[in-house]
Design brief:
mainly alpha, 8 helices
Length: 141
């Protein structure tokens, strides 16, 4: 059975877990967009080109004095999003290798790690796959 945490921070942790791929991917894309703005602010040729595009000119004017801090935030957001996405993909691949077995013995040997990944690290749909696999292999809890 899936565990849910209590309190506000627990709710945020559950939301992050259930939408882990989407949140980390979105953070990475936002980080890339912020890096693009930082490049436009720092590279003189890019800044001259951006002055010709009304939206970019407006954004660069608004970021004028804050472009240094925007670049730092861009790097952090991109790093956090990228590392979280890579961690999620790594855990999903580990889960796939552990659950894709026809051997009941192998499944039982790895059941603790499978349950740990499904309840604490990956979205709820992975837990439903564990339940289906347990039914398929006739494993009792």
């Amino acid at each position: 059975m899936k565990r849910y945490r209590k309190g506000f921070w627990g709710l945020l942790a559950d939301i992050h877990q259930d939408f882990r791929f989407e949140i980390s991917g979105a953070l990475f894309v936002v980080g890339l967009l912020l890096v693009f703005f930082a490049i436009l602010g720092y590279v003189p040729q890019a800044r001259a080109w951006a002055r010709g595009v009304a939206v970019l000119d407006y954004i660069l004017t608004g970021l004028d004095r804050w472009i240094f801090w925007e670049a730092i935030i861009a790097a952090l957001v991109m790093l956090i999003g990228g590392l979280d996405f890579a961690d999620t993909v790594k855990k999903a691949r580990e889960f796939e290798t552990l659950i894709n077995t026809t051997s009941k013995e192998s499944f039982l040997k790895n059941l603790k790690r499978i349950k740990s990944l499904a309840t604490d690290a990956l979205p709820e749909r992975y837990w439903r796959r564990v339940e289906r696999k347990m039914t398929e292999l006739k494993v009792r809890d």
